[in-house]
Amino acid sequence: MCAAVVGCRKPGEAKLREGNAAAKAGRLEEAQRAYAQAVKQLPFEARPRVLLGNALFELGRHEEARAAWTGAVERDAASVEARLGLARLALEANDAGAALEQLTGPADGVDPALLAQRETLRGLALLARGASGDAEAALTAAQDALSSAPDGPLALYVRGGALLVLGRYSDAQAALEQLQLKHPTSPLGPYGLARLAAAQGRATDVLLQLQAAKAAAGPAWKADRVAADPAFVFLSTSEGFLALVGK
């Protein structure tokens, strides 16, 4: 009678809608609290934990995000979104192998947007691992991602990075310039061009592109990661480079 007359909903669905509205408006703390309540009210479902993990990750609370996403996978081993989150955390920890373990699975039935994200992260993880054949596989993954989401900035960056590793410098230049054209406010374009310039030994261009990347990244600039990037090792004593990475 309840379902027929008033369309009864599961406990927790109202909190999920509340969290979604807050997240869409950028109120992440409010979204996190709503999703945490939904987790309590829907203890056996994966979706509330996926959304909670997403909010926690955006808030920088990565270990709590890991717990939420792990709980989601325990309830639904096929949760692509939860595995994407765990792969992001693995990449943050420079563990490409662990990331790749999370990025397997069939493509059938997967939302195209999630599939594009999975292929993009897989390409990024392959480039980070750098084993034999990984650059070719990363290029294929980036192309697959771009077939679903043609303008994805990270997929465009992965494509440029793969072409760079393969020594196809002119193609890498074109790919990264396309990224810069489509996403002029993203730091990914100039950062990729800085890595390309480094591969060609163009120190002045490296510094110019890194300055542009730092300006575009703003507070999100990760100086320690840039300093540790092997592409820039030949600049380790450059005053200009050291100023950019805060050394």
Any overview of this molecule?
This protein is mainly alpha-helical. The protein has a domain at 9-74: Alpha Horseshoe (Serine Threonine Protein Phosphatase 5, Tetratricopeptide repeat). It is 71% helix and 0% strand. It contains 15 helices and no strands. The protein has helices spanning 2-6, 13-24, 28-41, 47-58, 62-75, 80-92, 96-102, 112-129, 134-148, 153-165, 169-182, 188-199, 203-217, 223-228, 239-244. Helix 3 packs antiparallel against helix 4 and helix 9 runs antiparallel to helix 10. It is globular and about 60 Å long. The chain starts with a helix and ends with a helix. Residues 1-7 have low confidence and may be disordered.
Distance between the termini: 69 Å
The radius of gyration over CA amounts to 20 Å
Structural class by helix and strand composition: mainly alpha
User: CATH homologous superfamily of the domain at 9-74?
Assistant: Tetratricopeptide repeat domain
SSE diagram, text form:
Layout: H1 2-6, H2 13-24, H3 28-41, H4 47-58, H5 62-75, H6 80-92, H7 96-102, H8 112-129, H9 134-148, H10 153-165, H11 169-182, H12 188-199, H13 203-217, H14 223-228, H15 239-244
